C-alpha cells in the first residue's frame, strides 16, 4: 500500500470513529449544565470541517477520560488542524476540570485547551474565563491547560483560597498542589474577594509567590514582599514569608507594633513566631527590641483540652538599659517574670478541681519593664503580686472536703515575700446534731448545726535574695489548727429571730516568741524559739433580730405615691475569757526601757495569731435601714416608678461591760445608694469617736479621755461612680426611618439624604468616678485624698473609635496615669494607636493587625483593651 493510500485510509478511520462516538454519546449532557440553554445550531460542512452538535465527545482512546464540550453560538472541528473551537458561552469538561469561557480551543493530539474571556471591541477582557476544579473557582483572562500533564499557564489569574485571594499577571500550575505566580498581589479583603470593590484596602505585593496546596491546609511562600495600604506602599518590607492560606492553625511570623518610649528609645514590640504543636498546644516566641539597648524575650505556651482544662505558661526575660554607658545616669537592670495559668472545666470532675494562677516577677520588674502592655494596662502601678495554686477533693460517700493550696505574695514596697507552702484544710460538711426524721427543724435543739475542720499551714516572710535558702527554712513557721463551731436559731414571739452560737479553736505551733529589751541598742528584740506549744480559745454569742416596716401614703394628686421605710435592728452579746491572765500561760512579761513590766503573748506573730487579752462581755447593736419611695411616671407602663433613697444605711457600735475604761467602741456608719435611674452609685462610710480627745500644746497627737458624748469624726470615705452614654439625652429617631437610602461597599453603615450627604449617629460612653477619703485617728491634723477619674470612648463613625482614661489628684493638683488611644477599622485590618503623654513612662505604640481568620496565627492580631487587667492568655 502506497503512502498516499495509507494516509487516506487513516483519515477515513478517523472520520468513522468521530461519527460513531458522536452519534452514540452526543446526547450526554453534563449534570451542571442547564438543558434550557441547549442551543443546537447546525454548522455547514466543508472540506475541512465536521458538523458537531452541542456536546462533542472525542475518541476515548486518546485521553484518560471523555472530553465534553458545548457552546451557545458556534462549534467547529478541523481534521486538518486536529482541533475543536467553541464560541460564545463555551464550556469544556474533562474529569474534575470545567472551563467556562467566551472562546475555547481544544487540540486533539497535544491535549491542550486554550480558553479566553469575553472581549470588548478594543480587545480588552470584560468578562474572565472561569475554571472550576475540586469545587474551587479560578478566574483568568487567558489560560492554557494540558489535559495530559494537567499543567496550566494562566494570565491575569485570580485564585481564591479560603478567606484570601491572589491575583497574578502569570500563573503556572505544575500539579494540583503547586502553583507559581509572578508579579502577584495577595489580600484577605472580604469586599475585594466578593467583588464589592474593585480595589483591596490592603495587599502584599511580591515578584514571585508560590502556593502550596495540601490536603488539609495551604501555604503561601514568597520572597521579598511589600505591604500596601489603600494602594499606597508602606515601609514594611520583609525578605521572605511563609503564610498560611487555611482556616486551620498554621505557623507564621508575628508582626510587631512599633513606637517610641522616652526612657528606652524606639522599639518593636511583639516581633516573633507562632508554631502550633499538635491538636492541644501552640507556642509563641515574642521579642521586644529597643534602639537604646533594651531587649526582652517572651515565650508563651498555650494548651487546651476541650471539656477538661486549659492553661498557659509564659515568661519574660530581658534587660532594661537607661542612659548612656559611661555616664552617671547609665543603668542596666535584669528583669524576669514567670507566669502559669491553669483552669479546669467545671464539667470535667465535680469531685476534684485543680486551678493555678502563678505570677512571679523580679522585685524591680514593673519599674523596669520593657513590655509596654504593662504600662497601658496600668500594671506598672502594682505594689503587690499574689500567686496561688489550689487543689480541692470532695468525696461521694464521705462528708468531708480536702483542700490544699500554696500562695506566694510579693510586696514591692517593702521587698518582702510571704510564702504559704502548703496550706491544707480538712472540712467536715455541716450537719445537725438532732435532725428530725421528718426533715422539718423547729426549736433551738433541732436547729443545732456543727461545723468543724482541721488546718495545717507553713508560713514564712523572707526576701527575694533569701528564697529557698537556709535562712528561709530556719524562719519557717509551722502550725495546726482545729476549729469547732455550733449554732442554732429559733423564732421568738413570732417576730423575732434568736440565734445562739459557740466557737472553739485549738492551735499548735512550732515556734514561740521571747521578747527582751536590749539597753545597748535601746530596742526591744524578738527572738523566736523552736519548740512545740499550743493554746485553746473559745467564745459564745447570742443575737436577737427583727424587721420593722413603716409606710407613708400620699394623696392621689401628689407626685409621690408612697414612702416605705424598712428597719432591721439587731442586738448581740458576746463573751470570751481573758486569755491574758497568767493562769492560762499564754502571756509573759518583759522589762521595757523604763523598767516597767510589759505583757506580751508568746504566740504573737505566730502562724495563727495570738489569743486575745482582756475579758470580753460586749453588747453590740446594728441598725440597718432601707428607704424607698414610689413616684408617678409617664414613662413606666405601670404609671409608677420605684426610687431608692437608701439601699442600705447601717449604724453599728458596741459596749464592753468588762472593760475598765473606754467601754464604748467607735461608731460606724455605712451607706449605699443610687440615683438617676440607678446610674449614680454612691458608697459612704464614716467612723465616729464617742470619747473626747484633748491635745496638749505643741503636740500633734491627742489623748483619749473617758468623757463620753463628744463625738468627733475619725474617718470618712465617699466613692461615686456614674456611667454615661448618648442614651442620657433620650432616645433618638432611628436613621432608617428618617432616610431611606443606604450606602454600599464601604458605606453600609451610613444613611444618605436626598442631597447624598451621609448621616451616622455617633455612640459614646464615659465612666466618671470620684473618691474622697479623710483619716484622722488621734492626730490633730488628718490626711485627705481626693481623686477624679475618667474612662471612656467615642465612636465618631462606624470605623473610628477614640478611647482613653485619666485621673486627677485634687490634693496634689496633678494628673495621674493618662492614656489616649484610637482605633481605625479598615475592613480587613485594624490600626490601633495608644499614647501615654506624661508621667514616668512616656510612650506611644502603633499597631496594624489583620482580621482574617486564615492569618490570625501568622500575622498577630488582637483587639487591645488597655483598660482590662493584663493577662498572659
TrEMBL record:
GO terms for cellular component: cell outer membrane; transporter complex. This is LPS assembly outer membrane protein LptD (Organic solvent tolerance protein OstA). It comes from the Bacteria. InterPro entries: LptD, LptD_2. Residues 220-691 form the LPS-assembly protein LptD central domain. The lineage of its organism: Bacteria, Pseudomonadati, Bacteroidota, Flavobacteriia, Flavobacteriales.
